[in-house]
Amino acid sequence: MTTFAPAASRAARVLSRPVRLNGLTVPNRIVMAPMTRKFSPGGIPGADVRSYYARRAAAGVGLIVTEGTYVGHESAGESGRVPLFHGEEQLAGWAKVAEEVHAAGGAIVPQLWHIGMVRKPGQRPYPDAPAIGPSGLVTAGAEPTGKTMTHKDIDDVIGAFARAAADAERIGFDGVEIHGAHGYLLDQFLWAGTNRRTDAYGGDAVARTRFAAEVVAAVREAVSPEFPVIFRYSQWKQQDYTARLAETPGELEAVLTPLAEAGVDVFHASTRRYWQPEFDGSDLNLAGWTKKLTGKQVITVGSVGLDGDFINAFQGESSSVKGIDNLLDRLEADEFDLVAVGRALLQDPEWAAKVLTDRFDELKSYDASALATLS
Question: For the whole prediction, is pTM greater than 0.90?
Fold first, then answer.
């Protein structure tokens, strides 16, 4: 196995620095990225889910962002095995997850999620619920196949996010992440390709951002002032990997500014490959531009520690270990503040401990079979 010794001592120094996110001190710069696992029958996270997250906290992950969890709206999801963030049993299960992660020395936030038009008809947990979105479209250029949201629908979904955030603080979580990426509901409003509205929630970038900003504002109001609110967004969509919210920094600023003003503390800029520049004329990635444009703290993500794109992983492809010198250069230069790790941590619960103690020669390549277990 290849050893990446040149980056080792610097990795421990750069990644081990604590960071303050509003009222939360995270012990280092390593974040576990949210990854849907579907190991929660009835939407209830059990002992295996608790252990899954606690193992990674015990091995040095500073902040865990949970897999996406459906907020309390009937159209929010499409699986009976994805965890819910509403309901007495479900929240009791999540409270135990937070407790075990804290006992292991980590911090944890739930990712609050509504999938919108991605929902297929007749799926659990509410088979009769319609797919809903800003214009009833799954992707750009398509014909409407779902329900165009009314203002009442919009208010109901905003309320569901706010209740979930309040519950997260009540049961012991350290913050929340709002899922506004990857072509799901909030992103369907942000993206001109799926938002054809002519009311106050459609039109230019600022208007398309109004719904997401109102979600953020309601979440901010529902929790205490020091409770961190993270917002995850992306240019790419699961429906279209080449889609973009913004072609220029100015266009991106128009999207991000209302969100920052509504109460986002930290942006989680989701890319498929963190090392790729976002706009011509600059080496900054999406997280770097986000920090430059908003002044907010940011998390970068995208194939950290591996040489293959995560999209290919879902098609059964494996990935080899890749050095992180470039990542450390950028982090040391304050291009971004934290680093989210996905598949490498899914494959190896000890990834953070190995990196933080210079055991690069022990890192494991990613095998897509890891998706089948909750190790």
Answer: yes
Q: What is the DSSP pairing of strand 338-341 with strand 297-301?
A: parallel
In angstroms, the CA 294 to CA 358 distance is 34
**Burial bucket for residue 303 (CB in 10 Å: 0-12, 13-18, 19+):** buried
Residues 6+ apart with CB under 8 A from 198: none
pLDDT digits (tens, 9 = 90+) for 141-174: 999 999 999 999 999 999 999 999 999 999 999 9
CA 56 to each of CA 7, 116, 346, 374: distance values in angstroms, whole numbers, following the listed order: 22, 31, 9, 12
Helices (H) and strands (E) in the chain, counts: 13, 12
Element (H, E) at 32: strand 30-32
Catalytic residue status for 274: no
DSSP string of 93-148? HHHHHHHHHHHTT-EEEEEEE--GGGPPTT-SS-TTPPPEESSS-SSTTPPP-SEE
Q: How far apart are CA 132 and CA 145, in angstroms?
A: 9
Catalytic residue from among 52, 53, 184, 274: 184
Cβ neighbour number for residue 225 with a 10 Å cutoff: 8
Please spell the DSSP secondary structure of 259-283, one letter per residue: HHHHT-SEEEEE-S-TTS-SSTT--
- Nearest 5°: phi and psi at 133? -170, 180
Cβ pair 229, 169 in contact under 8 A: no
Residue 125: cis peptide before it, omega within 30 degrees of 0: yes
